Amino acid sequence: MPEDKDASLDQERASTLTCPDCHTDLALPTGRGRGAWRCPRCDRQLSGAWTLKPDSLLALSVATAFLWVPALTLPLLRLENLGLDNSASLLDCTVALLQGVYLPAGVLLLFTLLTMPLANLIAVSRLLWAAREHMPVHSPRWMQVYRLSREWAMTDIFLLGILISMTKLGDLATVKPGAGIVCLGLAVLLRLIVETLAQPDQLQRLMDQQAREVADAR
Ligand SMILES: [Zn+2]
Questions:
Q1: pLDDT in tens, 124-176
Q2: Residues paired with residue 86 on neighbouring β-strands, in sequence order
Q3: Cα 206 to ligand 1 centre (Å)
Q4: 38 CA distance to ligand 1 centroid (A)?
Q5: Quick check: is 126 in a domain?
Q6: Domain range enclosing 168
Q7: Considering the entire predicted model, what is its pTM?
Q8: C-beta of residue 116 within 8 angstroms of C-beta of residue 153
Q9: In this structure, are residues 162 and 120 in contact, taking their beta carbons and an 8 Å threshold?
Q10: Where exactly are the transmembrane stretches of this chain (predicted)?
């Protein structure tokens, strides 16, 4: 009977997974074991160490979005040397770089520090909202943008750079951290938590499973 065959195929698809990198068919882990699940053949991470909770991750994404505004506009550092006092926000730095001879660096900063983190935030919020509401996401673009922006959003590296330069500049001038760097630090921390817990493959599987449940209920 074709319907029985379809149902058993669906069941099989629900209990196995093809590794996206090496295309090995793997059985989904049954128990709630601890630790991340990796492909035994190519070591690709297939799911995070924790269960995916769209509700709380969506809340963290919204908090990140609110933190981004002061992180961009408030001064990152205040530099004082021989009576000269200077401070700049992340937005000021990017605009200044885009105008001078450092245009390529400015474009890179704009891409890795503003465009990609923003795309990441929008894409992950869209996907988590869909998972929370059990709504199918029809366009595969959202997942593609999420995967791509995870690679290219480099706010954490920028933050590390600022902290290193603060210690180096400490010998030459008085460096005081501004409110912007605190907000940026918190935004980076929240983004890393969301990215660690919302692994793309795991999120995709959750949405596929929800789509199957919706189809079965009809
Ligand atoms: Zn693999």
A1: 999 999 998 888 888 889 999 999 999 998 888 988 988 888 888 878 888 88
A2: 79
A3: 19
A4: 8
A5: yes
A6: 74-211
A7: 0.78
A8: yes
A9: no
A10: 57-77, 107-129, 179-198
